[in-house]
Amino acid sequence: MAVTDGGAARVGSRACDDARMSRRGTRDRTPASTLLDPLGQPWPETGPPRRIAVLGSTGSIGRQTLEVADWLGAEVTALAAGRDVDGLLAQVERFRPALVSCAPEVADRVRAGLPVHTRLVPGAEGAREVATADVDSVVAAIPGFRGLGSVRAALAAGRHVALATKEAMVCAGPLVWREARAAGGRLTPVDSEHAGLYQALVGEAWEGVATLVLTASGGPFREGPADLSRVTPEQALRHPTWQMGPKVTIDSATLFNKGLEVIEASVLFDVELERIEVVVHPESIVHALVRFHDGSVKAQLGPHDMRLPILYALAAPERPSVPLAPLPLTGTLSFFAPDLGRFPCLALAYEAGRRGGTAPLVLNAADEVAVEAFVAGRLRFDAIPDVLERTLAAVPAADLSWDVLDEIDAAARSAAAEAVTAVAS
Ligand SMILES: NC(=O)c1ccc[n+]([C@@H]2O[C@H](COP(=O)([O-])OP(=O)(O)OC[C@H]3O[C@@H](n4cnc5c(N)ncnc54)[C@H](OP(=O)(O)O)[C@@H]3O)[C@@H](O)[C@H]2O)c1
Questions:
Q1: How many Cβ atoms are within 10 Å of 298's Cβ, its own excluded?
Q2: Can you give the pLDDT at residue 34?
Q3: CB within 8 Å of 247: residues ≥ 6 apart
Q4: Rounded to the nearest whole angstrom, what is the distance from the C-alpha of residue 3 to the centroid of ligand 1?
Q5: Distance 142 CA to ligand 1 centre (A)
Q6: Ligand 1, atom 8: nearest CA belongs to which residue?
Q7: Which atom of ligand 1 is nearest the CA belonging to 246?
Q8: Which end of the chain is less enclosed by CB atoms within 10 A, N or C?
Q9: Which residue, among 149, 101, 129, has the nearest Cα to 406 in the 3D structure?
Q10: What is the pLDDT at residue 218?
Q11: Which residues form ligand 1's pocket by a CB distance below 6 Å?
């Protein structure tokens, strides 16, 4: 993807006239609106959002987003959650949103606890209303394929979406981009690795970029056991560095999460899969690196605290100060090649990405089914890749279009359920 800003051919930089730079480093800047961000979109002209909607507000990303909203002094006007009634009502009491959504099964309990000025719209329709609320930014953090509909709705309504729901890019990335471009919607990445790439690419020419590098913590089983067949859900849910929701935590333990992120990066930045590398970095301090043709490597570092990528996704290119201690610059940073023999899910994600079309959607559905079966005690941890491989083989890849998504997702789930039974027996 060649991103240019009227000939300057720089990614996301704001032109700077050195002659105007003072000794203190303060400089007069060209208005942000004249140049593009690393995804080829105009930078926002209005600074950090004043009004925010949150999809998946009671989850790990959702709760941290509300802390960031507090940092920014932003109003939270719409919240979508699932079944966590107490969590949602506590957020309503704190932020007084005009609109909330929840799972239909808990709607009566939520309604009973709402103040008069808060409107409730349950279910997928409610999530879509939250996604299209009159706000400056929508943070999308409903996990899985089910999070896609509200991402699409927000972009189709021309909203800025700070995207945590990586599955939206994996399952339908090209369609999501088309929707955004057609309606003037804007995307920024929340995933820490993609936020890291986004930051490392600011001011760079795409012509100079060789590869994008995502770091992986390696998960709880990086150093063992050699035999992964007896791993329990409790062990897999104990992530060494990040506190996240259950699905993404299990996916980190199989390295499937990194596979999703490779596909996400490829679609988000429009870079071929072969130019996306993965490196294991147990300290989770370096989130991403960009290799340049001149041999230089640029890294983005930060504490493993998701509030920071959420903040950048909302406020970029501004960098508001935060109430956190500075990152200590002591200790060791280590990097290893991933072990694809023990963690074949990563290689399977590259394979699905290479096949293209609906193959990543099929792989994602297979993993959602496999992880659910593993957590329920119906599938061994080391059998998860088998389920993915069998499902990929059973459901041929088709061309991607909004019309086929639900059908192919359903076919993949059914094939994956059969694979779980076959592998488990
Ligand atoms: N957590 C992280 O650090 C992290 C980092 C990078 C990317 N991500 C990505 O961000 C997304 C969210 O992850 P998470 O860890 O925050 O997940 P999580 O902790 O499991 O939270 C999921 C949230 O979505 C809500 N939800 C679930 N189904 C819903 C539906 N059908 N309609 C409306 N709301 C629904 C849940 O509601 P209830 O709890 O009320 O049921 C909860 O608020 C995932 O795609 C993940 O891969 C997460």
A1: 19
A2: 53
A3: 143, 144, 368, 371
A4: 32
A5: 4
A6: 164
A7: 20
A8: C
A9: 149
A10: 87
A11: 56-62, 80-84, 87, 127, 141-143, 146, 164-167, 191, 242, 244-246, 248, 306
Report the percent of the chain where pLDDT is more than 90.
85
Single-letter residue type at 11? V
* Residues 54 and 135 sit within 8 Å (Cβ to Cβ): no
Domains of the chain: 51-190 (3.40.50.720), 204-303+325-339 (no CATH), 356-425 (1.10.1740.10)
Task: Point out the ligand 1 atom lying closest to the alpha carbon of residue 244.
Answer: 1
| pLDDT tens for each residue of 319-336 | 999 999 999 999 999 999
pLDDT at 119: 98
Distance 154 CA to ligand 1 centre (A): 17
Pocket test for ligand 1, best of 58, 61, 105 (most atoms within 8 A of CB): 61
Alpha-carbon distances of 164 from 170, 228, 244, 280, 378, rounded to whole Å: 12, 29, 12, 21, 29
pLDDT tens digits, residue range 77-127? Answer: 999 999 999 999 999 999 999 999 999 999 999 999 999 999 999 999 999
pLDDT band at 240 (very low <50, low <70, confident <90, very high): confident
CA of 143 to the centre of ligand 1 (A): 4
